[in-house]
Amino acid sequence: MLVPLDQKGRINEPELRRFIDWLIASGVHGLFPNGSTGEFTRLTSEERQTIGAITCDQAQGRVPVVIGCAEASIDETLKASEAYRKMGARAVAIVAPFYFPLKPASVLEYFRQLAEGAMIDVLLYNMPLFANPINLKSIEELSEIPRIIGIKDSSGDLPFMMRMIQNIRPHRSDFTFLTGWDPLVVPMMMAGAHGGVNAVSDVAPELTRKMYDTFMAGKLEDAMRLQYRVLRLFDRLFTDQNFPDGFRNGVGARGFDFGSGRQPSGLSISNETADAMCAEIVELTRVE
User: Fold this and answer.
1) Would 187 be classed as within a structural domain?
2) For the whole prediction, is pTM greater than 0.90?
3) How far apart are the first and last CA of the chain?
4) What's the CATH number where 188 sits?
5) Structural domain of residue 105, as residue ranges?
6) Which end of the chain is more exposed for a tag (fewer CB within 10 A), N or C?
7) 3-state secondary structure labels for all residues of the chain
8) Can you give the pLDDT of all 288 residues of the chain as single tens digits?
9) 134-160 as b/e, with b when 16 or more CB fall inside 10 Å?
10) Is 56 among the domain residues?
11) Which of 36, 198, 143 shows the shortest CA–CA distance to 135?
12) Distance between CA atoms of residues 242 and 257, nearest Å
């Protein structure tokens, strides 16, 4: 989930609540605040908890809420996870430590300690673009811990997803596999993944839901046609601008006022280009 900010850079609570209602009405199966698209590293710990509280309160149990939970240390992450549990979150998603490169054994120990200390279910969040990767051997070992219920893998590596499913599912049938790489949701589901947690769903929740439903109905060719539309939309939102600014603009094209992110972009586009981009986004999000 993206986070709307007002003109002073503060969380725009009324717009966030309106956005949550729209996402749910548009068919999303769940909500995921405080992830990469939500620019969690540019928020304070207090702001992250405010976003979590607003999301859980507005959802009112209509869909499960999985909250990104990544603080500077294990102790702070555990404190935040407990706060999210009390808010009513279904689980917390924890990314591997970022900034400092770590050996795989250290990443494994980090998650092991968190899983042993948390009183809420944990979704592993593999985001090698921004954080230390979680290797296959570590994921296999962590899947043996009941508190760890699945993984959101944003590597975009299809063979990696296949190896995870092949090695984990035989002994942990309830382990959830989600992809965070928008262009590959259908291929990942064909390989056995359950679904996706995707930035495009901020802009086109109707489209991603229809793509999912079409796949589940066994209409693979139709699902792939929708996947190609998601690919075009993803490329339009992800490639030409700093991430996640393109998605903020995309939500603007859908009628929301999300303001500017906290990182100055230094980029500018003409009004004509902006209008053309908005028109293309609206066209790509249309569901017949």
Assistant:
1) yes
2) yes
3) 24
4) 3.20.20.70
5) 66-285
6) C
7) CCCCECCCCCECHHHHHHHHHHHHHCCCCCECCCCCCCCHHHCCHHHHHHHHHHHHHHHCCCCCEEEECCCCCHHHHHHHHHHHHHHCCCEEEEECCCCCCCCHHHHHHHHHHHHHHCCCEEEEEECCCCCCCCCHHHHHHHCCCCCEEEEEECCCCHHHHHHHHHHHCCCCCCCEEEECCHHHHHHHHHCCCCEECCCHHHHCHHHHHHHHHHHHCCCHHHHHHHHHHHHHHHHHHHCCCCCCHHHHHHHHHCCCCCCCCCCCCCCCCCHHHHHHHHHHHHHHHCCC
8) 999 999 999 999 999 999 999 999 999 999 999 999 999 999 999 999 999 999 999 999 999 999 999 898 999 999 999 999 999 999 999 999 988 999 999 999 999 999 999 999 999 999 999 999 999 999 999 999 999 999 999 999 999 999 999 999 999 999 999 999 999 999 999 999 999 999 999 999 999 999 999 999 999 999 999 999 999 999 999 887 889 999 999 999 999 999 988 887 777 777 777 778 788 888 888 887
9) beeebbeebbeeeebbbbbbbbbbbeb
10) no
11) 143
12) 18
Number of structural domains in the chain: 1
Please give the Cα distance from 159 to 162 (Å, whole number).
5
Does the residue 12 lie in any domain?
Answer: no
Q: Tell me, yes or no, whether 25 lies in a domain.
A: no
